[in-house]
Design goal:
The chain has about 500 residues and is an alpha/beta fold. The protein has helices at about 5-10, 25, 40-45, 65-75, 90, 100-115, 130-135, 145-160, 175-180, 195-215, 240-255, 255-260, 265-270, 285-290, 320-325, 340-350, 365-380, 405-425, 465-485; strands at about 15-20, 80-85, 120-125, 165-170, 220-230, 230-235, 295-300, 305, 385-390, 430-435, 455, 460-465. It is built from 19 helices and twelve strands. The structure holds 5-hydroxymethyl-3,4-dihydroxypiperidine (IFM).
């Protein structure tokens, strides 16, 4: 077997799924169609300087209108899983009340269309587009939003649960709470430590309530969530750096997973925050303990953390500046994030040695293996899904009309190999989704970063398969061929392996 596709493909179990991923706000467009209500990203994008070049998601990839052709394109790749998200403002335009039938019908058709092609619909219920009406009442920083979310989750599961078996509750809660409520870089653009901590606790509660609400509708449904994760390495072996890394791991990887899976926030996180600001109420922690049926992993880099450069003796400052700003106030004051804090936060992500993508993220395929294996050590046998893996490069069709994105091929090859290594080490990884199917609206960066394996010309909406898409299709084809290989030798001829 010398075909390199086959060599890689053969390292995955027969029932492993290869897929592609998108999210509603990043591709759909049609923001006013069929009764959709405004979301926090509509509001945020209309602010001056919030999004690079003032771009908006008004049209994006026009997927809301082109979904039929898009399903054909997805099917042509040979994938058997499509991860997408459902836009809450299409289902409940104000975040509460009955289903907006026209909005739900879109996802109903999408699910049927995927199933007709033999593709698993793998939806995420929340990929950052909160109905603006709920933000007007405080958004995720308000306790009640968890209850609203659970109602929404139940409504959708009730309508699609006869055809959709696996549900992701949230996408990357750490990213949208920290960038949205602490750093102000994402919608709703707030900068408050108290708001951030409250949003963390509300989103943890929303996970638990959403999980239970979906199970109450249909107990057999599998319910998990998708987390941004990264292995954390201390920059040196000094005690201070190791301690900083421990804190970084608690914050980045575990503030959402630990309370759900184990019923408690990581101690390193609790040690670093003004605990009362989390607004934990009696009975919350017991109610929150809802071990997920699977964990989705989005791993784009590793984190190398050093306590030294920015804040020698006060580790949480590396991320927040909490202790310095709350010292002398009993630890319960609010904290306004300054530009310095933002810069210091970002530089914690920036020190590394590998090559970088257009996002400035270090390419470090081993990171994915390390995250998957450590999750398996902590939660042995738990099904894991790689829900996003991918890279942005400044690629465009050449004179020959072809997008020669060799770097992206190398990226996916290396990351798939890393997943295969994790499976070899015992991790129960069930699927891999290339982020993204299409070049799309990359939040505050607008349309500049192109993550797609399919190029989108935003003027004509022409989709062009990049070479990475062709490569992925060949790899999937090779995997299918491996699966149908028939061994014709008689049992007596089989070599004995010990
Ligand atoms: O585009 C995002 C996606 O919405 C969430 N995960 C990371 C991607 C790349 O930044």
């Amino acid at each position: 077997m010398t075909d390199p596709h086959a060599l890689l493909a053969a390292r995955f179990p027969a029932d492993f799924r290869f897929g592609v991923a998108t999210s509603a706000y990043q591709i759909e467009g049609s923001l006013d169609a069929d009764g959709r209500g405004p979301s926090i990203w509509d509001t945020f994008a209309s602010r001056a300087n919030a999004i690079e070049r003032g771009e908006t998601a008004a049209i994006a990839c026009d997927h809301y209108r082109r979904w039929r052709d898009d399903i054909e394109l997805i099917a042509s790749l040979g994938v058997d899983s499509y991860r997408f998200s459902i836009a809450w403002p299409r289902i409940q335009p104000t975040g509460r009340g009955p289903v907006n039938e026209a909005g739900l019908a879109f996802y109903d058709r999408l699910v049927d269309g995927l199933l007709a092609k033999g593709i698993r619909p793998f939806p995420t219920l929340y990929h950052w587009d909160l109905p603006q009406a709920l933000e007007d009442e405080g958004g995720w920083a308000t306790r009640d939003t968890a209850e609203r979310y659970a109602e929404y989750a139940a409504l959708v599961a009730d309508r699609l649960g006869d055809r959709v078996g696996e549900w992701s509750l949230f996408n990357e809660p750490y990213i949208f709470t920290s960038r949205g409520y602490l750093l102000g870089r994402y919608a709703p653009g707030k900068r408050s430590l108290r708001g951030f901590l409250r949003s963390v606790h509300t989103v943890v509660r929303a996970h638990a309530l959403g999980y239970r609400a979906i199970k109450a509708v249909q107990p057999h449904l599998k319910v998990g969530s998708v987390f941004a994760m990264a292995p954390v390495e201390p920059a040196t072996t000094s005690d201070a750096d190791i301690e900083a890394a421990r804190y970084g791991d608690a914050l980045f990887n575990r503030i959402f997973i630990d309370p759900l899976m184990q019923g408690a926030y990581p101690q390193a996180f609790l040690d670093g925050v003004p605990i009362r600001a989390l607004d934990i109420q009696e009975g919350d922690m017991a109610a929150i303990h809802t071990p997920l049926d699977f964990i989705g992993v989005n791993c784009y880099y590793r984190l190398i953390i050093s306590a030294g450069e920015q804040l020698p003796d006060d580790l949480p400052l590396l991320f927040f500046g909490i202790r310095a700003d709350t010292r002398g106030t009993g630890g319960h004051a609010d904290f306004t994030v300054t530009q310095d804090t933002v810069t210091s936060l970002l530089s914690a992500f920036g020190r590394s040695e590998g090559e970088r993508t257009e996002m400035g993220w270090e390419i470090w395929p081993r990171a994915l293996h390390d995250v998957l294996v450590s999750l398996n050590i902590q939660y042995p046998g738990l099904p894991l899904h790689v829900c996003e893996s991918g890279c942005a490069f400044a690629d465009k069709p050449g004179d020959d009309g072809i997008v020669h994105d060799e770097s992206r091929i190398a990226y996916h090859r290396a990351h798939l190999s890393s997943v295969a290594d994790a499976i070899g080490a015992g991790a129960n990884v069930r699927s891999y989704h290339a982020w993204s199917l299409y070049d799309n609206f990359e939040w505050a960066s607008g349309y500049r970063p192109r993550f797609g394996i399919v190029h989108v010309d935003y003027k004509s909406q022409r989709r062009t398969l990049k070479q990475s898409a062709e490569w992925y299709r060949e790899m999937i084809r090779a995997a299918a061929a491996t699966r149908t290989m028939v061994i014709t030798r008689s049992p007596a001829d089989r070599p004995a392996y010990r």
